Amino acid sequence: MAHCSTTVRKLHSAPYRQSDDSPMKHFSFMSTRLTASALSKALISFIALVCLSLILATAWQMNQSKRERIATAQIAVSNIVLAAEQQAQDTLRQADNTLRDLVERVEHDGIAGEQQTRLTKLMAQAVVNVEGIQGLFIYDAQGNWVANSFSKGVKAKTNDDRAYFVYHRDNPDESIHIGSIVESRNTGDMVIPISRRITAADGSFAGVALATVPVAYFQKFFERMDVDDKGVIFLALNNGDLLARRPTLTALMTTNVAKGDIFTRYLPYSDSGTAVITSVVDGIERIYAYRRVSGLPIVAAAGVSCEYVLAPWWAYAQRSIILTGMIILALVLLGILLYRQIKQVMTAEGELNIARNELEIIAQTDSLTHLPNRRCFDAALHREWGRASRNHSTIAIILLVF
Of 31, 42, 209, 252, which is most buried by a Cβ count within 10 Å? Predict the structure, then answer.
């Protein structure tokens, strides 16, 4: 029979220094480390945030660039409209001043005898001196040609069927009247009729004084303006009838733009402004500027095509999108690579933890009996000694020796 001895020792607890390899240290170290799932989510969230920020920054920059292009185009077409307005105002005002003088002479001196000859010479000289006027005419109350600025060989005709003649005959208004485009019966050109009523001493209708401005005069002026091939400049009456347009139209005399957005949506509320509008004439979307000509029943407008204005912006946008896409692709690929590395590291760490736990079990048990060995005893002693120290109690050790 085996001999068994028992030893009982009662020890007073005293401060005991914990080993650096204590379980508390391992717990504190492990608690500060992220799990594989949390680290993966953090990486994905970070890359997504960077990509989203990059996309938003690029979109904001592209939008700002587009707004700047449109604003620059609006300023440019506004300046073109101002130039067209000034040209129309100068030309038509000069023609009106000439007509005013002619009407005053006719109403005061009449047109009989030598006065008709002097009047013809005066009108011929006025056509030479006043830019833009093609011809000057005086009609009597029946619409007959009484005097004109052309040679005496011009065959006299009647104009009592013209809209401007009918207007003055039926209206006592003596102010300037600007009519729709007509084909000149003298030259065959398309002209803009500018007229004034001649009133007899008794207030009755005595005839019409007419000045004609060729449509080609304004179109040549418009050709000098800086607009693209799909751009447009036009003058129109308040009723929408076109007076001049670049590019010109074969049906210019019968074209009316009163149903367009400028006349229906904008002019009723503002005498000038800018807007992006699709033309009712050719269907092209343009950035327009429009303005009522001060003191005249005319609207001046100009537009540059959105395609032309935004062409450089589209090129910039495409480069920005490609560059941003490449950066995002690089970030995604980098994220995938890091994610795989993290997964590999975490997998390896898990395998190491399993191996370490197995080694700890092996180190703390007897290989033959599978009972806890001296290392396990030391760990238990450290733990109990610490508890006794905290509680200010004693500790007893029972040693069984077989």
Answer: 209
Give residue 266's Cα distance to chain centre: 19
Question: Rg of the chain over CA atoms, in angstroms?
Answer: 49
Rounded Cα distance between 286 and 277, Å, is 6
| Residues of the chain falling short of pLDDT 50 | 1-9, 13-32
Please report which helix (H) or strand (E) contains residue 300, including its range.
strand 298-305
Residues 214-254 have pLDDT tens digits of 999 999 999 999 888 899 999 999 999 999 999 888 777 78
User: Among 333, 338, 336, 349, which Cα is nearest to 35's?
Assistant: 349
Say which amino acid occupies 308: Y
CATH fold of the domain at 66-310: Beta-Lactamase (3.30.450)
CA 252/CA 303 separation, integer angstroms = 18
* Sequence spans of domains, the chain: 5-62+313-401, 66-310
DSSP for 219-283, written as a single string: HHHHHTS---TT-EEEEEETTSBEEEEES--TTGGG-B-TTSHIIIIITTT-SEEEEEEE-TTT-
